[in-house]
Hints:
alpha+beta; 2 helices; about 10% helix
Amino acid sequence: xxxxxxxxxxxxxxxxxxxxxxxxxxxxxxxxxxxxxxxxxxxxxxxxxxxxxxxxxxxxxxxxxxxxxxxxxxxxxxxxxxxxxxxxxxxxxxxxxxxxxxxxxxxxxxxxxxxxxxxxxxxxxxxxxxxxxxxx
Length: 136
């Protein structure tokens, strides 16, 4: 996905699965702690107001909608960690495995998170992903 997009601009956009079926609406965007790059989106599926985490890297923004290249059933079965909190490295690993994705590896030393404040959720010193914007 385009990494130059303001993560807050994704909030509220419709999310569609690989077949074009509506999954739900983007509720939050989670940034990688080390790079500040948008990494995960929490999509409100409407099922008991549950949010499902979807990876942003293979997803695309097409006609103002987030296109996620996975089946709706796989997305709805994603691990549920709740929203508004930091994703731990273990939780991210579970998500990568759930979607059958390779875990990204960095040859560089981890860098501190960028000096941005999108509503909290980032931890101090722990790598993982934190929300770019929380619900009020």
